[in-house]
Specification:
The N and C termini lie far apart (66 Å). α9 links the parallel β6 and β7. α2 runs parallel beside α11. The strands form two sheets. Strands 3-2-1-8-7-6-5-4 form an eight-stranded parallel β-sheet. The chain has a two-stranded antiparallel ribbon with strand order 9-10. The chain has 13 helices and ten strands. It is α/β, with parallel strands linked by helices.
Length: 348
């Protein structure tokens, strides 16, 4: 379950969001099947997108059919307006999906695209946080409205430069919202390897001091799993159960096997980061078994002066450490030392 304070801890398990978005294709049976799969894979949250025909695109975008250019390039029987109408989930469907998630023990959330949808999610459905899409990072009136709900916010930062991110954070803080998670995001579907820039995760943390996560649009699992090494607190990954389905995001989405791999890695990966302070976890017994001691490289008689050529370094490390070899060289043997015998302090 989402807990902002836990995300602020140094050692916190990343919160994994299965971004269903509109991959349900307007089919509630499919949406519930995807929720079931996300639960099985170990995701903490399933997230949808809350928009209507009137809240997301202007008339010009519908006239241009802009967002059909890639995913529907072979279709002539659909317009963008028809697709948006088909994939839209209404108030009733929101309630149905929220209830289903509650039954399955997984967080429900959705990205709003208008004040009306913010009201539905924050006030009626009581989502644990409000997700702000990259496209709305510079939508100051919208950010002010969201901040008024006094809920944690999770912000994707794709499309925006550092100054725009700074303006958004300043706006939220001025309006009383201090529980913020920033998601490094590249709003290309999919980005090239050289465009992923996971080092931006460190940059966002150092510049803003809030928990930072990663919203992934790459193909496969490499980038989200690698982001664990950046101590991300949230991983968001588009999710589908069939990459060949028609729609906007199926091709760049994780399937069930990939989502499970991400969730499994997140469940243990944060533990592996450990401490910035050097810690020796191996037992003394194990250290002695693996390290070396100074040994006689030949039979040395009592009274002989030990030279550098008279010593070697072999396991176990129960004698004098090789780092003190200069202390041994030049000493006089007090007893006969056999070849390969571990030399002790009392032997000279």
């Amino acid at each position: 379950m989402f807990d902002y304070l836990s995300l602020c801890r140094d050692a916190a398990k990343p919160y994994v969001i299965a971004e269903i978005g509109a991959n349900h294709n307007g089919d509630m049976i499919l949406a519930k099947k995807m929720i079931d799969e996300a639960v099985r894979c170990g995701a903490d949250c399933v997230k949808f997108q809350s928009w209507s025909k009137d809240s997301i695109f202007s008339r010009k975008t519908y006239e241009d059919n802009y967002f059909l250019r890639d995913d529907y390039r072979n279709r002539t029987d659909y317009t963008l307006e028809q697709i948006v109408d088909k994939y839209h989930i209404g108030v009733k469907e929101h309630r149905e999906l929220k209830d289903y998630c509650d039954q399955k023990g997984i967080d429900f959330n959705s990205t709003p695209f208008s004040n009306r949808e913010v009201d539905l999610l924050a006030d009626e459905l009581q989502v644990p946080f409000i997700k702000i899409a990259s496209m709305d990072l510079n939508n100051i009136p919208f950010l002010k409205y969201i901040a008024g709900k006094r809920k944690p916010v999770v912000i994707s930062t794709g499309l925006c430069g550092l100054s725009e991110i700074n303006n958004a954070v300043d706006c939220l803080e001025r309006e009383g919202c201090k529980e913020i998670v920033l998601l490094h995001c590249v709003s290309i579907y999919p980005p090239g390897d050289e465009e992923v820039n996971l080092n931006n995760i460190d940059m966002l943390r150092e510049n803003f001091g809030y928990p930072v996560g990663y919203s992934d649009h790459t193909v496969g699992t490499t980038a989200p799993i690698m982001s664990l090494a950046k101590n991300v607190k949230v991983i968001e990954k588009h999710f589908t159960i069939d990459k060949d389905m028609e729609g906007w995001d199926h091709k760049i989405s994780a399937d069930a096997g990939e989502l499970k791999a991400i969730c499994d890695a997140a469940a243990v990966g944060y533990k592996m980061l450990g401490s910035f302070r050097r810690q020796v976890n191996e037992s003394q017994e194990r250290r002695e078994a693996f390290q070396r001691s100074i040994v006689a490289a030949r039979n040395i008689r009592s009274g002989e002066i030990i030279s550098r050529e008279d010593i070697d370094f072999k396991r176990p490390g129960t004698g004098i450490s090789p780092q003190y070899y200069e202390f041994v060289v030049g000493k006089t043997a007090k007893r006969d030392l056999a070849y390969d015998e571990i030399i002790q302090l009392q032997d000279f």
